[in-house]
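Protocol step 4 of 6.
Sequence for FAD-dependent oxidoreductase (Actinomadura darangshiensis) entered exactly as in the expression construct, tag removed. Do not edit the line below.
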Amino acid sequence: MNTSRKVLISGAGIAGVTLAYWLTRHGFSVTVVERAAGIRDGGYKVDVRGAALTVAERMDLLEEIRALRTDVRSGTVVDASGRRVASMDGDTFGGRVHGDAEILRGDLHRLLFARTENEAEYLFGDSVTALRETSGGVEAAFESGATRTFDLVVGADGLHSVTRELVFGPEREFVRDLGHRISIFSVPNHLELDREEVTYVGPGRTALAYSTARGDAKAMFLFRSEEDVPRDRAGRLQALTAAYEGEGWEVPRFLEAAGEAADLYFDSVSQVHMDRWSRGRVVLLGDAACCASPASGQGTSLALVGAYVLAGELAAAGGDHRAAFDAYEREMRPFAERNQKLGPSNIKRMVLRTRGQVRVSMAMLGLMARMPGRERMMAKIIAPIHAAANAITLKNY
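Step 5 output, structure tokens:
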């Protein structure tokens, strides 16, 4: 047992909460600090596939995850007038096979938190402002004014990681912008979608809406841009509106709804590339270490698998954090890099550059939707995703 090992996890997202679960199972004393006031509910839909399913199963969570699946049953592509170009069943459209589970991020988050809230210490509404390694560990200063010392610190605080910036250097050294922006938010279900996803593709910009088993609806916008992401809400709304000016389908109505959305998310589609994920007694996890971007479809799976591996290697190393961090990277880096390769290739299919590409793609989708054996054709398209999702053999720690 490692009851004397005190670990601070910065960030209570999927990666941080999963790590808290496994570390407490291995006997570590865990504190999790999170800037937000609590666990966020709702959110966009995410996939749990490949090795991440094994992690969920080892947490005895798989049945609960599947009970909360989005149950999206169909996917449709439309043109600017709303005419249906192609329709497929939800699993084929979403590239789900082999027992993959699609769930709202917030639902998964709540399941994970429920397993840890009484086992780990949670500090909500606070954040790390400074880290200083001492002979006795790592001294952490918090925004609240408190100062505490831990044996180890894990940065699980996302793409824009404060931990990474404090220990490794400025974000610009590690974050690679893929030249696209993404926005997701709740919208009124005026299309009366029932567990359905509808996608519209224009040159350089894609828009879609979906409803899940919950009955609510979300809109997502994905578009080409290399402009800086505005820091304030008004600037983000302005950037989103400008990017889709004059666009057809239901885009204008969704843009109106964005102004009222309490859960507006807007960010770059980016990846994180680092030569090393640890320095001294500090290590990075999930998006902070190896963000594969939303375009990869693998961010949640990387968080679940990475947390399992890091906790397992820390337990196996018997107190030698350097050996544990080295082993964590040996296990995870090839898996992370394989999944990162999905991002740039997927984004090219998700956002088409020209009107000509859009016309050809729509014609091909329409033809494929009517052809026998379309499931086999789709399986070939999504095969690289599932190969990457399974590109690690998990140890039994």
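Step 6, annotate. The mean pLDDT is 91.
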